[in-house]
Amino acid sequence: MTEKNQTTMKAAVLTAPGSFTLQDVPVPSIAYDEVLIKVAFCGICSTDKMIFDGLVSVEHIPFIPGHEFVGTVAAVGSRVTRISIGSAVAVDINISCGVCRNCRNGEPLKCTEIQQIGIHRDGGFAEYAAVSEKNVFPIGTGVISGKDLIKYALVEPISNVVRAQKRTGSLLAKRTAVIGDDAMALFHLQVARVQGAVPIVLIATNTVIGKFGKQMGADTVVVIDEWTAGSEKLHQYLGYFDVVVQTSSRVSTFDMGVMLTGPGGMLLAAGFPEAGSEIRFDPVELVLNEKKIVSAVAGVGSDVSDAITLIQSNRLNLDPFISEVVSLSDVEVELKMGRPGSETLKVLVDLNQ
C-alpha cells in the first residue's frame, strides 16, 4: 500500500522540451502482474539531458522521465508471486513484446516494439512507479536504506557497462583503452579491472575524470587538450590495444578508437553521438587488420542481476558517484545548467526530500 493510502504523488513532469513542472499526479494503478515501487533515488544521466533538450522521445511528452531508479515495493498485483511488499528492488527498464523474431532469438533490445521505462513511458522522477514483476530485481534481504540503498540507483548504468563488456568476449589480460570524459568511462574502467584487463589506459580531456580514473585503477591516464588531437601521435605514444572502449559522444573519438585498435582487436562503441553524425575512417585499415567494431545500448535481463552482484561485491568504488543528491524540484535546474567545472560525477534525486 502507499503511505496513508495516498492517491496522488509528486512527480517531475516534462511538459515540453526544456520545461519540467512539479505536479501532483495520480499514483499509478497496477495490473495483476505489476509491482508498485516507492522510488527512493533516481539518477540523472545524459539520456535525460537529451530528452530534456528535445532530441529524443519528444513524441512521448508530456511524461515522467527518469530511468536510473531504485526503491522499495509498496504494493503488488494479484498474481505477483516472486516479489514481496517491503523488498528493495532495482529495475530492468526494457519492455519488449516477447513474440517478434528478435525477442524469440533472445535479443529483446532489438524488439520492434521496445519501450524503456523513463524514456518512452513514465519513470522514476516521481514518488511511485509501476513496473511489471518480470522487470523487477530484488537487491537483498532485510531492510536496505540510506547509503546502502542509494548505490543501487547505479544498477542501470552499470548494467549497460556489463552488457557492453560481455560483447568483447573476455578482457582477461587484454590491453584496454577507455576513451571518455564521463561517469560511464569510469564505470567501464572499473569493470574492466574486475575482469582482469591489463594494462588499462584512460584517455580523457577532463582533468577531473583523469584524477578519478587514477584513483579507480587506471594504469595510465592520458589527458589531452581536445578530442581532435592527433590520433596518430597517441598511437605512437601508447601503441595498439586489444580492446578500445569509446564512451564519448564526440564523433572524433570513434576515429581515435579505430586508430588505437590493434590488428585483430575490437572497438567497443558505447558512446551516443548526435543523430546524423558521420564517422569517417579508412575501411582498408579495418579490413586488412581484421578489426572489429561492436556496440551496446543498454543492459537487459541478466546484465541487471550481474550489475547488482558487482555492487554487492564492493569491488567498485562507487562513493564518488553518490555524493551529490538533490530534491525532485531541482531536476530542471540540473538538466538546464549542469555542473561545469565541478568534480561532480553523478547527480541523484532523493524522492524523500
Summarize the structure.
With 353 residues, the chain is α/β, with parallel strands linked by helices. 26% of the residues lie in helices and 26% in strands.
List keywords for this structure.
single chain, Rossmann fold, Quinone Oxidoreductase, Chain A, domain 1, 11 helices, 26% strand, alpha/beta, 353 residues, globular
Looking at the overall shape, the CATH architecture of the largest domain is Alpha-Beta Complex
Identify the overall geometry: globular
Low-confidence stretches: none
Beta-strand fraction estimate: 25-35%
Query: In terms of structural class, how would the helical and strand content be classed?
Result: alpha/beta
The average pLDDT value, as a whole number, equals: 92
Distance between the termini: 20 Å
Query: What is the chain-wise order of helices and strands?
Result: EEEHEEEHEEEHHEHEHEHEHEHEHEHE
The domain tally reads 2
**Rg calculated over all Cα atoms:** 20 Å
Number of E strands: 17
Please identify the top-level CATH class of the largest domain.
Alpha Beta
Query: Could you please say which CATH topology of the largest domain applies here?
Result: Quinone Oxidoreductase, Chain A, domain 1
The DSSP helix count reads 11
**CATH homologous superfamily of the largest domain?**
Medium-chain alcohol dehydrogenases, catalytic domain
- Tell me roughly what share of residues is in helical segments: 25-40%
Q: Summarize the biggest pleated sheet.
A: 7 strands, mixed
Describe this structure in words.
The chain folds into two domains: 3-156 and 299-350, Medium-chain alcohol dehydrogenases, catalytic domain (Quinone Oxidoreductase, Chain A, domain 1, Alpha-Beta Complex); 168-295, NAD(P)-binding Rossmann-like Domain (Rossmann fold, 3-Layer(aba) Sandwich). 26% of the residues lie in helices and 26% in strands. It has eleven helices and 17 strands. The strands form four sheets. Strands 3, 4, 5, 8, 9, 16 and 17 form a seven-stranded mixed sheet that branches. Strands 12-11-10-13-14-15 form a six-stranded parallel sheet, with helices on both faces. The longest helix is centred in the middle third of the chain and has 13 residues, at 183-195. It starts with 7 loop residues before the first strand and ends with a strand.
